[in-house]
Each structure stands twice: as C-alpha cells, then as structure tokens.
Design brief:
The protein is of the alpha+beta class. It is about 20% helix and about 35% strand. The N and C termini lie far apart (about 110 Å).
Length: about 375
C-alpha cells in the first residue's frame, strides 16, 4: 500500500507538470466552447441592429452651426497669482493660485474681452485660443463698475475670429440665447436657454451696481464668467458675469452685462485704458453722514472751480463759526431719474457723455429748485 507514496528524498516526477498542463488546456478549451455556445444560445448576447433615424431637426442643425461658428471666437483664460499668508511674526508664506475663466475675441488686433473679476488679482494671464495655442496677455484697461476688462495678445490676426456684435436694447423675454464658455475648466462648452428677464440690477464683486443686466436660464457656472451670451444669429448680446445661487453652481438664474454697455466701454478702454466719465463738478459729503442726518440724495460738500456746477451756482456744505453745519444743496434728481445716493448719481451720469447738459433737481433750504449743468470729463 505504501509503494505508491513518493520518497521524500526523491526528485518529483516530470510527468506531473506535463499532466497538469494538459488538464489546464482541456479546462480552458471547455470554458471557451461554453462561452461560444452561451453567446449563440442566449438571445440578446449579440449587438442589436441600429435603428435608422431621419435628418436632424432644423433647430438642432441651427444650434450645431452656431456653436461651430461662434466657438472660434471664445477663449480660455488662465490667471496666475501669488497669495501671501502670514505664518509667523516676521515670516510670510507665498501660496500660488490659479483661476480659470472665459473671454471672447474682440478684434483682429488681439484684444480679448472678459470680466474684471476673472483677472482682478492676476499677476500673469494666459489666453488659449480655439486652435489650442496659448499666448501671454497684458492688461489694456478695466471698468470695475461694469465688471469689464480688456486684454491684449500678440496672436497673429489670421488666428483671430472676432465675435459678431449685436444689440441688447431690442431683446425680448423668451427669445433663445446661447452661452459658450469654460465651466469648471471644461473648455468649449455650450448651454442654451432663453432671455428670462431684462433690465435687472445686480451688484458686482466690488459692491457697485450694474444696471440694465440680462437675466437668462442658460446654465452658467464658475468658469463661464467672461464668456459670450449669443442670440440665435450668433451675435454677441451680453457677457456672462454672475449667477444667483447659494451653492455657487448653476441654479437657472444667470446674469450677463448687455452688449450695448460693452460696446460703449471697450473702445474707451482700448483707446484710453479707462472710461472717460462725465462729471458734474462737485465734491460729495460721505453717504454715512447724509444718512445720519436723515437725508435722501447726494449732498454737495464743495463745488469745483471752473466746472458746470460752479456755472450753475451750486452751494456746498459750510461750517458756521459756532460749529453748526449748514448743509449745501441736496441733489434729488438728474433729468427724470430719482437720486437717493451716490450709486444712483453714478448710474444716472453713465447715460451721458462729457459735453452733454443735464437738468439737476435739488433742495436748497428745503425748497426744490432746478439748474441746467454742463458735464465735463472727469480727471483720471
């Protein structure tokens, strides 16, 4: 009975590996045959036939064509900055930061338009064109109150496709809109929607009011900022700038700076590096004082010599010998626009240019009066 047991000191027979290999081969073959039989014997184991479809719908074709054409005008913006954090009494840690956003090509000279808040803290800005080439960009000018910035690249004119310009004063609630941008870093993304409302007023990141803003339900997420909002003809009608969302992601309420504002501001930034603002010629009393005195309007603190305000005979605020403050003229309206604070005055004057004349309504000794004032260009 023990003759079949191998000796512990003997070398194992070579027949066992050979036999094992044969058995493994038989098992593998059996499994393969089983798989083949299984595929042929079970219905649904083979791909189903493709169902033919008709042509794309007309609106689908239009959207595809719009994206293929308009996306050539949209750029990917990367901003780089260094944030300094104190780590001790005499030590500072420099932490590199990188942000992304969108922009669009303004002209063949290499000017790129985006939001001011996209590049606000940037020390270096890179612009990636649709052909995937990257270019360093330099800052040309900004208008923080409208959240607009203009950059300049040295990209060849042949690589640049300026976005067609439309109008925003004739938009209608319900018309289709298209947003192209780089949400969350995913470049060349298209979302669609409609004009949800017009004439909205929002506050930019600096806390200033932007008037006449377009509201849309086209999905706008972080990274879409600075990208174009287009009409169904592929024309620029706004620049996506902000969403209303507690979570910071798209909630169906997005806002865009209207193209009429962009088309007025951008040429000035290119020509002068700033917007040439109209100026009444007054120095205003700080708003906190005006509020504490129970007033609504813009209180004139002083009148600048040689300006329209001096020509109109405005009075500034004075301090009597006994220390009593004698309020100056309180501006309460510009033409037909009511003025309750400095923001109202700024927005009212934005409608005019240096050289225009406006009718100012004001209170003097609690008596309402009016005066025509010639606007001048504000100093830088």
């Amino acid at each position: 009975m023990d003759s079949y047991a191998p000796d512990a000191t003997q070398t194992p027979s070579r027949r066992l590996p050979l036999l094992g290999g044969v058995l493994l081969g038989l098992v593998a073959g059996w499994l393969l045959v089983g798989q083949i039989r299984g595929v042929s014997s079970f219905e649904g184991g083979v791909p189903r036939a493709v169902t033919a479809r008709g042509d794309l719908a007309a609106d689908e074709k239009s959207t595809i064509e719009l994206f293929e054409t308009s996306s050539r005008s949209v750029v990917y913006i990367t901003s780089k900055a260094v944030r300094r954090e104190p780590i001790g009494m005499f030590r500072v840690l420099e932490v590199p930061e990188e942000g992304t956003g969108s922009g669009f090509i303004w002209d063949n000279d290499g000017h790129i338009v985006t939001n001011f808040h996209v590049i606000q803290r940037a020390q270096e800005v890179l612009v990636r064109l649709p052909d995937r080439s990257s270019w360093k960009a330099r800052l040309v000018g900004v208008e923080p109150s409208k959240d607009i910035a203009v950059l300049k690249t040295d990209a060849p004119p042949g690589e640049l496709r300026p976005v067609p310009i439309g109008r925003s004063d004739d938009l209608q609630v319900g018309q289709k809109v298209y947003a192209i941008g780089n949400p969350f870093g995913f470049d060349q993304t298209l979302t669609t929607g409609v004009v949800s409302a017009l004439g909205r007023t929002i506050r930019n990141p600096a806390g200033q009011t932007i008037d006449g803003v377009i509201q849309t339900d086209a999905a706008i997420n972080p990274g879409n900022s600075g990208g174009p909002l287009l009409d169904s003809a592929g024309r620029l009608i706004g620049m996506n700038t902000m969403i209303y969302s507690p979570s910071g992601t798209s909630a169906g309420i997005g806002f865009a700076v209207p193209v009429d504002t962009i088309n007025e501001v951008v040429p000035q930034l290119i020509a002068h590096g700033r917007v040439i603002r109209p100026y009444l010629g007054i120095i205003m009393v700080p708003e906190n004082y005006v509020r504490s005195w129970g007033m609504k309007g813009v209180l004139i603190g002083d009148v600048v010599e040689g300006t329209g305000a001096e020509e109109a005979g405005f009075r500034g605020t004075r301090v009597a010998r006994d220390g009593t403050i004698i309020p100056g003229d309180l501006i309460i309206a510009i033409d037909d626009r009511k003025i309750e604070d400095y923001d109202d005055l700024r927005l009212a004057l934005d409608k005019y240019k240096p050289g225009d004349t406006v009718t100012v309504r004001y209170l003097r000794d609690e008596e309402e009066q009016t005066a025509d004032v010639r606007l001048q260009a504000a100093n830088p």
